[in-house]
Amino acid sequence: MKKLTFLLVILSILSCKENTSEERIPVEPDNGIGNGATPPKALSFSENIEEAHNKAAFMMQEAVSFDINLKFGGNTRLEGKVSMTTNSSKVRVDKKDGTSLIYDGDQVYISPQSAKKDGARFDIFTWQYFFAMPFKLTDPGTVWEDLGIKKLDSIEYQTSRLSFRSNVGDSPDDWYVIYKEPETSRLKAAAYIVTFTAEQEKAEENPHAIVYSDFKSFNDVDMATKWSFHNWNAENGFGDKLGEATITNIKFFSPEDEFFQAPKNSEIIKR
């Protein structure tokens, strides 16, 4: 009789343990966010802008081209077509006057050899960079510093200073003050200095700024089709308008094998 009673007690204990296990509510590893996923990583200032322009879709494309009509002081500075791989490893500028500039990933070439060479390296690197800037903010070698809130046309924008580690690009001493749109997180403007033809200290005496507008979507990628250029300083912000550019005929494409190769009758442009 004692053995039977002892057996019943053991079975009762086991039964209670089993029921308790079945009724326990599991704790989700994501603290209830859903599907067991971890919380999304908070995006940085630069990542937020790249996501707003859909960098992922941009980088899925092999190359992109656009027509540019650039004017300063009412005079045409550049008119033609700019073509580039989406990672900026190769660039081509075909000017309306028949001059072609090619960066093949190693050297800059100009064709024909008789073409005016002044500003050739500046043209092939600068305008493609302004176009692709929303997708290049997290490139290797970029350095960021939060500058807080600055105003443009009475609207407050979050800003950060972009600079570069040594030996990055053609002008590593350049810096930019990036303005992020408060509602869309797109790139609104960038103040900058140009050290390609001047020492950094001298260039910092005359900074300028580019303002982006008239955004349109191409293959789900947001890109500005109007640029304006202004005087700028850290204390007063944007000053007089200096120039403007109209961007049209934006197209993604797959370049032929020789598209970014130096044509015949070309010459290397050195620094």
Short description:
The chain has 271 residues and is an alpha+beta fold. Helices cover 20% and strands 41% of the residues. This is Heat-shock protein Hsp90.
Instruction: For the largest sheet, list the strands in their spatial order.
Output: 6-7-8-9-10-11-12-1-2-3-4-5-13
**Rg over alpha carbons:** 28 Å
Shape: globular
CATH class of the largest domain, named Mainly Beta
Integer count of domains:
2
The biggest sheet, with number of strands, parallel, antiparallel or mixed sense and barrel status, is: 13 strands, antiparallel
- The fold-level CATH name of the largest domain is outer membrane lipoprotein receptor (LolB), chain A
Distance between the termini: 103 Å
Q: What's the average pLDDT?
A: 84
Task: Explain the overall architecture.
It comes from Christiangramia sediminicola. This is Heat-shock protein Hsp90. The protein is an alpha+beta fold. The protein is built from 5 helices and 13 strands. The protein has helices at 2-23, 45-53, 55-60, 120-132, 200-203; strands at 63-72, 75-85, 91-95, 100-103, 108-111, 142-152, 155-164, 176-180, 187-192, 208-218, 221-233, 237-253, 267-269. Strand 11 and strand 12 form a beta hairpin.
Provide keyphrases for this structure.
271 residues; 2 domains; 5 helices; alpha+beta; outer membrane lipoprotein receptor (LolB), chain A; Heat-shock protein Hsp90; 13-stranded antiparallel sheet; disordered N terminus
Strand and helix map with partners:
Elements lengths: L1 H22 L21 H9 L1 H6 L2 E10 L2 E11 L5 E5 L4 E4 L4 E4 L8 H13 L9 E11 L2 E10 L11 E5 L6 E6 L7 H4 L4 E11 L2 E13 L3 E17 L13 E3 L2
Antiparallel strand pairs: 1-2, 1-12, 2-3, 3-4, 4-5, 5-13, 6-7, 7-8, 8-9, 9-10, 10-11, 11-12
